Amino acid sequence: MELPLSGIKVIEMTHMVMGPAVGAILGDLGAEVIKIEPIGGDKTRNLKQSGSGYFLTYNRNKRSIALDIKTPEGQEIVTKLLLDADVFIENFRPGAMDKLGFGYDDVEQLNPRLIYCSAKGFLKGPYEHRTALDEVAQMMGGLAYMTGPPGKPLRAGSSVIDIMGGMFGAIGIMAALEQRHRSEKGQKVTSALYENVVYLMGQHMAQTSTTGSAPPPMSVRVSAWAVYDIFETRDEEQVFVGVVSDGQWKSFCDSFQITEFIKDKEMDLNAGRVGKRDIIIPKIQDLFKTYDKVDLMKKLDETGLPFAPISKPEDLFDDEHLNASDGLIDIKVPYKDMYTKLPSLPIEMNNHRFGLHHPVPEIGEHSKRILKEIGFDEEAIEDLFKKEIVS
Description:
Layout: E1 9-13, H1 18-28, E2 32-37, H2 54-58, E3 63-66, H3 72-83, E4 87-90, H4 96-100, H5 104-110, E5 115-120, H6 134-141, H7 143-147, H8 160-183, E6 187-192, H9 193-200, H10 202-211, E7 227-232, E8 238-243, H11 246-256, H12 259-263, H13 270-274, H14 277-288, H15 293-303, E9 307-309, H16 320-324, E10 328-332, E11 339-343, H17 367-373, H18 378-386
Parallel strand pairs: 1-2, 1-4, 2-3, 4-5, 5-6
Antiparallel strand pairs: 7-8, 8-9, 10-11
Helix pairs in contact: 1-8, 6-9, 8-9
């Protein structure tokens, strides 16, 4: 099928996670994304350890041109790329684009229909000049406090705020594109790390207002339900189980034949069950230890209860559901003779998942072709390569 954003041209000047995530989402949805990298490539390509997967994950479905944007010739190329672009994405420190002559005020004059997306640390306000990282935002926005045990704030186990910033950037861009249908004008869209965290904290802020007391970290929270816990199985594995309605409680007790719970009418309603957690949880812990993990999950599945194995990231490569539903995409690793599986965009449209139409590019892989598309002839292109303005 024709992809939803087919025909939308995106110029991306980004690095790390948040900015590239904006372009990755648009690219997966069919936009033509041209990534402008510095000579030698985006430094994110060479990160080690926990950063080694960033580039591979957020730069598929893009083409690459490697360019020295600090030279007049390099700036001319960027200008030509922006002339007929629909979207420009950047995530550099505040003021960096203005110094290069590609701030919003400059670009708006060049192409009034352009949607200019800035992925930043903060939206307008006293903090907007600060440099932020995912972890900085998690710490100051309350997420680290809510994730770790008391007194030990802990960042979430993924670059969740960077990725969420990319999502909101893409949402803002698509809203601006729709608004352009009516106004014929582009606009600036800004997505920010700190405000993303605050948005996540809204439920806890509301809890504070409605109950009169601040919520404790999730690690020591008092559950709203009697059964909402991780349990060990006979083969020393772990399974999370939640029983979150009175109907589920009845199904759970009937399925596992826990007659003493069925007879206790005080347990028919959730409020009564929460008051008897000290009785319920030990009983269930002992019961589940009579099952191996696979058998317990099969029974829980048949009963229709919410449950989950405690999986590690590496377990997802072999997940039955993901592999059967186009939930994983085969991706070639640049400069290596190997492929890996990575998650596809987590939405369906017309029962269709979005896959790969451009592999993760090598540095400047498409430089010559892109230059030809914007009017440079062979002689001019060779000259740019000799001067190391393009690679």
